[in-house]
Amino acid sequence: MANVITSPTYDPITTAKNLATNLVAAQKAALTAQSTDATSTSAALNSLKSAISTFQSAMSTMTSNKSVLSQAATFSNTAYGTGTAGPKAQPGTYSFFVEQLASAAQNSYGGLNNLDGASNTGTLKIQFGGTDTDALNIDLSTVAKNPDGTLSPQAIAAAINGDSKNNSRVTASIITIDGETQLVLTSNLTGKANAATFDTSGLADGTLKSALSNNVKPLVAAADAVVWLGGQGTGTKITQASNTFTNVTDVKMTFTKAMAAGDAPVTVTVATDSTTTIANVQAFVDAYNKLKGLMDSLADPGDPTKNVAPGIFAHDSGLNALRSSMNDALRVGIGGVSLVSYGITAQRDGSIALDSKKLTAKLAADPASLDKILGNNNLVNSSGVLGKLDAVLGQWSNITNGQITQRLAATDNLQKTLSKSMDRLNAQYDNAYSRFLDQFTRLQVLQEQMSKTADMFDAMFSNDKS
Q1: What is the helix (H) or strand (E) element at residue 388, kind and residue range?
Q2: Looking at the structure, do residues 462 and 316 belong to the same domain, yes or no?
Q3: What is the secondary structure of 324-343 as a DSSP string?
Q4: Which stretches of 2-80 are assigned E, i.e. beta strand?
Q5: Are residues 372 and 437 part of one domain?
Q6: Residue 239 belongs to some domain of the structure
Q7: How far is the first Cα of the chain from the last one, in angstroms, to the nearest whole number?
Q8: Residues 206, 255: one domain?
Q9: What letter does residue 223 receive in the DSSP assignment?
Q10: Is residue 404 part of a domain?
Q11: What three-state secondary structure class fits 74?
Q12: Which of 61, 95, 293, 434 is the 20 to 30 Å CA partner of 247?
């Protein structure tokens, strides 16, 4: 019986691919793992950069507010006014009698129905407080005229409102009552010195001049605010154009209602606003814990028993040193007083917590020291906890030579190196594939030839009857 030679069953292309893949598989897996780790490192560094920036912004906000302490100016009767107090306000109680509120002048000018023939020659002046100081001069030659060439009250009002030197000091409007057109001139600032009135001496036209001079109706008289520090007639009289008073250091009081003779003065109490101060301190605590929480997740050692993978910086000594330095910064104290004295304490997991009751009690006894302990992160004059934290974090966040900038640059360079190595490995794969494909294609051809030869011999000897 003739020997049977079986034709090859393998595919040269598949075989070449498999052999070339196996040749570079170990190196490719190593490069891919390194690239994945570098990508994760870059993402983690950028997350840390963003978190540090957010925390530093929170510290800058506290610094820009000049004080974490919130002061309040509280009226004993809010019907008479409201107040606010800044960080420099000193605690105290003040009594005020509101004799008169400031008001803004408002006058109406009639007789404007018939301006036929009124000329646009001359200057219409608007005085404030009856003087020419900072007066508005409306050049009538620039005022838009009607199609028939006459002036209209609407055009005059538009010219007043649009004057470049007006600066919203006065508003002119047109009102028509029972068919009579009136131009209403309203001062936008209170007080006698801001009362706006027309001076028609510069007008050449008699019709317009007569209308604006002889048909004046005072609607609201201008008045200055009159407030007494203490009782009416017995205290200190304060007169000014505005209803908002700033006579008490860093305190703004706006009076809204006048009192009747014999009424008791309203009391304004300036003191620390514990509720808002607690909120300000809590905002700092929350911002710190948020940053620390991210750092903890990046440095988490993991737990194989619970199938918890370690963080990307689980064994990073630099990040651990940063966390330790931040914790040390919280311990800054002045004269034996620290954040702990104000109820800000470290927890077992390294985060911090606020005891609002302890903070409230300490604020009542010593409000000023809290600002001194917290300090500020101002680059020129940093101090306290905020200054220390900013200095520590700056070693990482500095855009020129900070740890994050350097590490991102190193990771970027590593990725470029890995990319070049992968390119070389891909070229190695291509060369190996081409070589294997050529070899196994020729082998396939040779086997096919051998198979045909065997078939020929089978045919020749298949008729041999011996």
Answers
A1: helix 384-397
A2: yes
A3: HHHHHHTT--BTTB-GGGGT
A4: 71-75
A5: yes
A6: yes
A7: 12
A8: no
A9: B
A10: yes
A11: strand
A12: 61
With CA atoms as reference, report the closest residue to 223 among 247, 258, 253.
258
3-state secondary structure (DSSP) of residue 258: coil
* Token duo for residue 401: 């030579």
Contact 292, 298 (CB under 8 A): no
Q: Would residue 3 count as lying in a domain?
A: no
| Statement to judge: residues 444 and 365 lie in one domain | yes
In sequence order, what are the beta bridge partners of 234? none
Sign of CA dihedral 225, 228, 233, 236: negative
Which residues, 6 or more positions from 60, have their beta carbon under 8 angstroms from its beta carbon? Answer: 377
Q: How far apart are CA 452 and CA 6, in angstroms?
A: 10
- At 149, list the tokens: 């060439």
Pairing relationship of beta strands 131-139 and 170-177 according to DSSP bridges: unpaired
Distance between CA 72 and CA 274 in Å, rounded? 9
DSSP code at position 231: S
Tally of domains in the chain: 3
Q: pTM of the prediction?
A: 0.67
The tokens for 265 are 């003065």
Q: What is the pLDDT along the chain (466 residues), one digit of tens a residue?
A: 445 545 556 688 998 899 988 998 999 999 999 999 999 999 999 999 999 999 999 998 888 877 888 889 999 999 999 999 988 888 899 999 999 999 999 999 988 887 766 666 789 999 999 898 889 999 988 887 777 667 788 989 999 999 999 999 999 999 998 888 999 999 999 999 999 999 999 987 677 888 888 889 999 999 999 999 999 999 999 999 999 999 999 999 999 999 999 999 999 999 988 898 999 999 999 999 999 999 999 999 988 888 899 999 998 999 999 999 999 999 988 888 899 999 999 999 889 999 999 999 998 888 888 988 998 777 667 789 999 999 999 999 998 899 999 999 999 999 999 999 999 999 999 999 899 888 888 888 787 788 778 777 777 777 555 5
Cβ–Cβ contacts within 10 Å for residue 209, how many? 19
Identify residue 124 by its one-letter amino acid code.
Answer: L
Give the distance, in angstroms, between the CA of residue 414 and the centroid of all CA atoms in the same chain: 35
Q: Are strands 92-100 and 225-229 parallel, antiparallel or unpaired?
A: antiparallel
Whole domain around residue 66: which residue ranges?
9-70+273-466
Are 280 and 263 in a shared domain?
Answer: no
